[in-house]
Amino acid sequence: YLEGLNLRAYLFQRVLSFQEKLSFSVAICEALLEAHRHQVLHCDLKPENIIIPQDKRLRVLDFGLSRRLRSTTGREGKESLEAIELQELSTPLVTQIRGTPGYMAPEQWKEGGVLSTGTDVWALGVLLWELLTGEHPFKSETLLELRTRVCQEQPDVSLSSTGADVPPVLEELLLSCLQYDAAVRPSVEHILGVLRSFVSEEKDADASGAGPFVGLVPMSLEQSFLFTGRESLREDVLTELAESTFVSIVGAAGVGKSSFLQACLLPAVLEEGRWEPLSMRCGEHPLRDLVSTMRASFAEVESDDAVNSSFLSDIQSDPGLLRAAFDRLATCHEKEGVLFVLDAFEDIVSSPLEEQRLLIALFSSLQGSAHRCVLSVREDRLSECTQIEGVKAFFVRSLYLSAPTAHVLEMCLRHMLTQVGGVMSPLDFSSRLCRDIGENGHAFSFLQIVGQRLWENRTRELTLTYKSLEDVRGVAGLIVTHANEVLHRFSPTDKQLALRLLSRFVTGHAQRRWIAKENLFEQSDAEHLRVFERLVEERLVELRVRADGLTGLDASLSHPVLASEWSLLSSWTREHSVEHSLLQEIEWSMALWEQRGHLPGDLLRGKRLRDCLTWMGEQPPELTTQMIEYILLSEQDAAFRDVAPSQRRRPVRWSRWFAGLGWLFFLFSLLWTLVARSC
Asked: In this model, does residue 198 exceed pLDDT 50?
């Protein structure tokens, strides 16, 4: 039982600001995206199923009508919809209903319709429409009228009739969610990205607002005045764009690639005025999101439907239409070309193959034109991306975004505070703070997290004091608090799995260590991989390309304090100390065995081997195939050593018998010769 109000009751009792509505919208999208990542469709998203408890942490509940996407249906996740009968209604039409009528997509009204993530996107669009305007987009007197309005190929809805003051980009986003064809509706990830950008815009970066720190949310175009420290890289990118169609930005997860693109590169492009920027994040359906982004850009300069509802299906038969649309977009904005900025390009790996093909075809068609393309990609997934046919050509001109040094980090901190009139006391506070954060791949993210907490405790004179940092147990205390908040948002099952993974990075002396990613879990294990990626995104795990120059990745905790001062992880490690020590024994022995060229003396022996065999019988998820093979090889070697001595002694005994007989024969022959001579 969860005590609180549902969203409809909450809205009835309170009048929300636009900022609060956006925050609720973001939370709903995050919950829905998490369900889709688990291959689950909600199928009944509505205000009554969204609970706001006393802690104000919104929850999406009631998955009673949810459907699990079949793995056999492909990456788009579509399946047949089975009609069910709702006993509380008696009209013949209800026999086709699955869900709440006011939030059902057109495909849910049709017999034999198909469900996809787009079905939930429709309900999300209706819900967000209500949240932002206070009205339902398809107000109807009867169920039949509602069905007729919803199932029109061109839905008759308009925000202007509601009188609500909704920005044009958000209006276009809501209308795209209510498209008749589920295939052209944007992905939840794209919707979330647009909403998050508006949340950032609405937060006033001044003394009375949220301050200059954004946490883990990337900086937006409007926050470019806060960004500094990457000017040389920006000039390098602009120089490369003058000569090359494609430029890629490669960097570790959490190093600040998204903030660089939005708050550093795009302002310079707009100031130069040569290209019209078209920026988006590569989600599960990049082509669909690209069409939505283009539609919003066209809406800024012309009223006709330049990218209509059939555009997505049209380009599947003729990819050249995308290049033509780019040409027209540049002409409409009176620019030389379009600068297509695609963030998080590594996500293309999980997109449908057809969308991959069409997007790569678009990129290829831009070669030699006035259009330009900037891609950002995580360095740990670069090789995975380049395995896709035709992608290597996009990474010929690559620039590396490295982690900031302590000096650059301090410069960024001082610059952000100066822009909003803030200061730090004492004078050396900034250098001490950045030194405690350290130089690592997530340093900029940790600066934002720590800065946010300090800004909340600022003085009236906008001063960040060292005492306020001591009150929260320093940088270590804030990083540990962030880690606890992250795991609090995990489901119980995912939390246990996350702790299993995180404990692997802690030694018996409470120090962090690096482990080869392939030794953490089976790379084909979807659940482990999903939780691991989330830990990387939440800045609890850091990845780096292997230092020995070999292919592969090493992983560890993102900061040493997580190994030494995080009580939750320490408690977990102590409770599972036996398994933890066995696992480290296996890892160290196996590493030594491989380094020395597979010497038999480096295999497991005696009690260690017996303990490992007993634990292996419990089928722990931590054991990878390589570890199991190593344990079995150790068992075979031990069995051979037990039998081999008895097998080796037998031929030695026979050889002695033969030697003795040989000597007897020799002596007999000698005696016979002597006797013969004497006779």
From this structure: yes
Whether 178 and 311 map to the same domain: the answer is: no
| Contact present, 503 and 573 (Cβ < 8 Å) | yes
Q: Kindly state the tokens that stand for 401.
A: 């975004």
Do residues 245 and 367 touch, judged by C-beta distance below 8 A?
yes
Boundary (domain end) residue, out of 380, 401, 422? 401
DSSP state of 566: -
Q: C-alpha angle 551/556/557, rounded to 5°?
A: 155
Q: In three state form, how does the secondary structure of 10-38 look?
A: HHHHCCCCHHHHHHHHHHHHHHHHHHHHC
- Residue 243 domain-assigned? yes
Q: At 2, is the pLDDT very low, low, confident or very high (cuts 50, 70, 90)?
A: low
Asked whether 186 and 120 are in contact (CB, 8 A), the reply is no
More confident residue, 570 or 653: 570
The phi-psi region of residue 384 (left if phi > 0; otherwise alpha if psi is between -120 and 50; otherwise beta) is: alpha
d(CA 122, CA 106): 9
Q: Is residue 496 part of a domain?
A: no
DSSP 261: I
**Closest to 111 in 3D by CA, of 85, 81, 89:** 81
269 and 173 part of one domain: no
Residue 402: name the closest of 549, 516, 545 by CA: 545
pLDDT at res. 264:
94
| Assigned token pair, 307 | 């990218």
Q: Quote the CA–CA distance of 360 and 101 in Å, as a whole number.
A: 39
Q: Quickly count: other Cβ atoms within 10 Å of residue 168's Cβ.
A: 11
Residue 501 forms part of a structural domain: no
Instruction: Give the model confidence (pLDDT) of 117-161 as tens digits.
Output: 889 999 999 999 998 888 888 888 888 888 888 888 877 787 777
Distances (CA, A) of 346 to 196, 381, 382, 429: 20, 6, 7, 38
Task: Select from 434, 416, 447 the least CA-distant residue to 539.
Answer: 447
Q: Average pLDDT, stretch 12-40? A: 82
Q: How many CB atoms lie within 10 A of CB 346?
A: 18
Q: Please say which residue of 195, 220, 238 terminates a domain.
A: 195
CB atoms under 10 Å from CB of 419, counted, come to 16
Domain residue limits at 335: 230-401
CB 77 within 8 A of CB 39: yes
Q: What are phi and psi of 276, to 5 degrees?
A: -90, 115
Same domain, 266 and 360: yes
Domain assignment present for residue 452? The answer is no
CA 55 to chain centre: 26
Answer yes or no: are the C-beta atoms of 422 and 462 closer than 8 Å.
yes
The DSSP string of 376-393 is EEEGGGHHHHHTSTT-GG
Contact status, residue 601 vs residue 498, Cβ threshold 8 Å: no
Residues 357, 279 share a domain:
yes
| Spatial separation of the C-alpha atoms in residues 50 and 127, rounded to whole Å | 10
pLDDT for 479-512, tens place per residue? 999 999 999 888 888 999 999 999 999 988 889 9
Distance of CA 199 to the CA centre of its chain: 20
CA neighbor of 342 nearest in space, from 351, 333, 331: 351
Q: What is the CATH number of the domain that holds 120?
A: 1.10.510.10
Helix (H) or strand (E) holding 544: strand 541-545
